Every structure is written in C-alpha cells, then in structure tokens.
Amino acid sequence: MFKVLIKNKATNEVRETVFKFNWHDHTEFWLTEGSASCDCNLGKWFADAGNEKDPNCDCCGDQYTPVKVILENGTEVLLCI
Torsion over CA of 66, 39, 33 and 80, rounded to 10 degrees? Predict the structure, then answer.
C-alpha cells in the first residue's frame, strides 16, 4: 500500500489518494509516464480524494500531476515530472 499526492496545476491544490497494492520498481514509471499518468486517471483519483464527482478529464490534458509518493514505511519518493 502507498499514498500518492496529486496536484491540480490550475489551483495548486494537492490531494492524497491511497493505492492498495505494493510499490514496485516499475510503479514510478506507471505514475509518471504510463497509463496512470493520463489526466483521465489522475483527475478521477484527485476528485475521489475530495469526495467529488469524476471530472471526466481529457486523457491528453495536463491539469493533474503526481508529485510525491509516501510508502507504507514512511519513505517519500519525489516524482520528477
């Protein structure tokens, strides 16, 4: 399990969401360049973290970005986007 801090670039608001699977070497790529990096996914997780409706974002958008991961043991992983 790990937490991801996602930033809305339009408002600079950061929200935390929890993923209930283990962090692996490839997970950083998944969050920053893989399928999880699309605004459709990041926007949904950002909305979920604020108990808001899914914004149905454009996959090609650039409004949301993952900024940091906090692992279960407290280790922080800064994401270079």
Answer: -30
Amino acid at 32: T
Question: CA-to-CA distance for 41 and 65, rounded, in angstroms?
Answer: 10
pTM of the model: 0.91
| Burial call 37-61: b when 16+ CB within 10 Å, e when fewer | bbbbbbbbbbbebeeeeebebeeee
pLDDT tens by residue, 31-48: 999 999 999 899 999 999
From 68, 81, 77, select the one nearest 34 (Cα to Cα). Answer: 81
Tokens of 67: 């900024």
Residue type present at position 29:
F
| Contact status, residue 46 vs residue 14, Cβ threshold 8 Å | no
Q: Where are the domains of the chain?
A: 2-78
